[in-house]
Amino acid sequence: MSKTVLVTGGARSGKSRFAEGLAESYAPLRGYLATGEAGDAEMAERIERHRGRRGPEWQTVEEPVGVEAAIRAHEHRFNVILMDCVTLWVTNLLFRCEGGAQEALAQVKSFAGSFPYLNTPLIIVTNEVGMGIVPEHQLSRTFRDLAGEANEIIAAAADEVYVTISGLPLRLK
């Protein structure tokens, strides 16, 4: 059994940098499980900016949907895996799962249930999306609810949970 850490926070809160710092306390080789896809120029630039922060001690695995299988397939190659991020993952699931949010949530539950069986430490980044206003559109509300439930499930299963605010981490669990 290894340690699982969840890092949450709002947009531009420093959560990815903090998570990368936690991962860098482990010896190389470090795995970076990227769930985002470059669907437009702005997202491609954002992905490149994240890659630029990491050095050769990191190896990126891109997997937008099958994160549990990807972690299992690659965990023995790395001393730590950083998954960034849950919010993009559940977005991908929401649009690709025939069963919609319920099927996506089932995958999140399966993923969280795998934590005790991991052999490699796992650091997970997510966005805190439930502190804003209630979205006007049904799809946005579905996403917000799914992301919030996913965060709750993963936080309950994680060994440690941090929230970052203005670049400052606060340990919650």
From TrEMBL:
Family: Belongs to the CobU/CobP family.
PANTHER family tied to this protein: BIFUNCTIONAL ADENOSYLCOBALAMIN BIOSYNTHESIS PROTEIN COBU, PTHR34848
SUPFAM superfamilies: P-loop containing nucleoside triphosphate hydrolases
Pathway noted in the entry: Cofactor biosynthesis; adenosylcobalamin biosynthesis; adenosylcobalamin from cob(II)yrinate a,c-diamide: step 6/7; Cofactor biosynthesis; adenosylcobalamin biosynthesis; adenosylcobalamin from cob(II)yrinate a,c-diamide: step 5/7
Domain of life of the organism encoding this protein: Bacteria
Keyword set, alphabetical order: ATP-binding, Cobalamin biosynthesis, GTP-binding, Kinase, Nucleotide-binding, Nucleotidyltransferase, Transferase
General function of this protein: Catalyzes ATP-dependent phosphorylation of adenosylcobinamide and addition of GMP to adenosylcobinamide phosphate.
Keyword Kinase on entry: yes
Species this protein is from: Geomonas terrae
Residues that hold GTP according to the record: 9-16, 34-36, 51-54, 62, 84
Listed EC numbers: 2.7.1.156, 2.7.7.62
Family matches, as Pfam families: CobU
Active site: H50 (gmp-histidine intermediate)
Protein name from the UniProt record: Adenosylcobinamide kinase
A GO biological-process term: cobalamin biosynthetic process
Signal peptide segment: none
